[in-house]
Every structure is written in C-alpha cells, then in structure tokens.
Amino acid sequence: xRRTISLFIAIVLILxxxxxxxxxxxxxxxxxxxxxxxxxxxxxxxxxxxxxxVAARFDYRLxxxxxxxxxxxxxxxxxxxxxxGIGTMINGSWRWLRIGPLTVQPSEISKLAIIILFAWxxxxxxxxxxxxxxxxxxxxxxxxxxxxxxxxxxxxxxxxLVSSVAVSMMFLAGVxxxxxxxxxxxxxxxxxxxxxxxxxxxxxxLAFLDPQKYEQDKAWxxxxxxxxxxxxxxxGVGFGNSMQKYHYLPEAHTxxxxxxxxxxxxxxxxxxxxxxxVILFVLGLRIALNARDDFGRLLAFGITLMITIQxxxxxxxxxxxxxxxxxxxxxxxxxxxxxxxxxxxxxxxVNVAHASIKSPKKTSRNPFKDRVRKV
Length: 375
Prior knowledge:
By secondary structure, the chain is mainly alpha-helical.
C-alpha cells in the first residue's frame, strides 16, 4: 500500500507540473502579461499542497461528524451564487463568488460535499440499503438538493458529473439495481427536458452533430480543438509553438487545455496523459478496496470516480465525442477552486490508504459483494 500511495502522489505531481508548463504556454497569448495565469495558478497550487497535507493527516472518520454542516454550507453557497450582487456572472453563467481578490466556484466545493455525504449515508444504512426509502428516496433527495442549484446556474456538465458519481456510489453500496436504474432514468429525463428547452444548450448539441455547419459559431472551439490535435501529429510542434492558442481556442488555458498538449507535445504525450489518469483510477480503486471500513471504502471510491470521470468527460468533449461542456481537466486546467478541492481529495485518499496500513482489518473488502449475493 505504501508503494500505491507513493505512485499515486508521484502521478499527481507529474500532472500538476505538466499543467503549469502547458498553462504557461497556452495563456501566453491571452494577455500582455504572459505570466498572469501562471502566477495565480501557483498561488492556488501552494494552497492546494497545504490543504492536501492537512487532509492527509486528518482522520477521515471525523468527516462523519462534520458531514451535515459541510453539506448545509455547500448548498447555501450554491444558492448564494445565483443572487445578483453576491454571485458573479461570467459568460452567461452564475457560478462564482468573489471573495476579495479571489474567485471561488461553489460547485467545486459541492463535489467533495456530495461524496462525503453519500459515503456517510450509504455506510450508515448498509444493513438496510435495499429498502426503498433508505436506499433510493433519501439519497436521490439529497442529490437533488445539490443538483437543482447547480443546474440553475446553469451548469449541466457538473450536474451530470456529480449525479453519475452519486449513482455509482449507490450501486457500489449495494442499492437494488432495478429501482436505482428507474429513478436514475427519471432524473436523466428531467435534465434532458431542461436541455431541450434551453436554446443555448440545444445550439451546442446541434453544433456537436454538425460541427462544419456551425464552424464560425458554437462549433468554433471543437473545430479548432480537432485542428490542434491534427497539427500536433505524433510528436507535436514543440513546446510553446502552438498556433491554436492564439485566440482560435478561447478556453485554451481552462477546459480546452488538453488539445494544446496534443498540438505542442503530440499524440504520444496525449496518450501518456490519458494513461496516467487510468493509473490514478486503478490506484484509487486499490485504496478503496483496502479501506478499513465502509465509509472509507465509499469515500475513496467516490473521490476516485469524481476525478477520473471528470477527466474522461473532458477528453470526450475536446475530441468531439460528446457535446461541449464546461468541465476542467483535473490537476492540469487553470482554476483555483478546482485545484484546491482536488488537492483536498488527494489528501483524503492518502489518509484512507494510511489508515488501512495501520489497521488492515476491514468490515467489507469486496465492493460488489451485494451484487454477487443477489445473483
């Protein structure tokens, strides 16, 4: 397990370092001050290292005592962000709170709050998880308390992300598959109805289906993202030599930073980055499987899924596999709130892993034990 922890931390550090280097290149054409975003990212990175170190030493079991106030504060922040004068609107979305010189994104905080809340509730109700009220109605009601404010921002990408992670945690906890699928589909239908009634979202779907037709409008980023990958070929055009960062990719330093990696460093480097997230997924699963209790197991699973599913969605968006969504690439994209929360998540995972070393005895090793028993 110590090797697992060391390798996990090493990969995160590699991704963070790569992120700073690519950010320096991708943001160099954004402002006259080429180091503006890098300086801000380094400040958040320092805060993230401190937060990760603290979280790694904080006994994860104590989160069970703090889960209710953490969830309440997170939901309150999601509500406040939508109030004019308190929240800040950027690019048509109310997703940020400005605190002095810093801008905080409450939906990032909600990702961690949801994981802790669901891990606590599902572990607490493990013996009665098959009951409709405890296993389905209450968890989905809790999820709605987070998802509704997020979707109102609007932020459909984060809504789908947190919902998929929450449902996955319910499945791993042993919730009955039938009711879980039915309730999940009902929720998905509700989100799809909202998307179809939103002209902005529908235009993105149309652009995804026919990017050439909307090349000068909604498909602008997608088309130029694909051009970045094509221009990079196998070995890339060289660090700092990207052409797409010169206003062809408006979000080259945030959501669309991965195409800059593909353009400057090439296909091989892009595949290596993807492979590192795969390794993070495998190592996260190993930490979860060796957790000392159900709460730690579900907590580790939730964090692993949140990081890797978000990365998967980002990869899918920038390669044109799914419609455009505003989700950053963990550890690499510019964004202080994302970097800070990701750091805390890593610290919690490390703490769960260290706890399993000190006390290897677990209440349930196999996360699919309930699935096997029912079959």
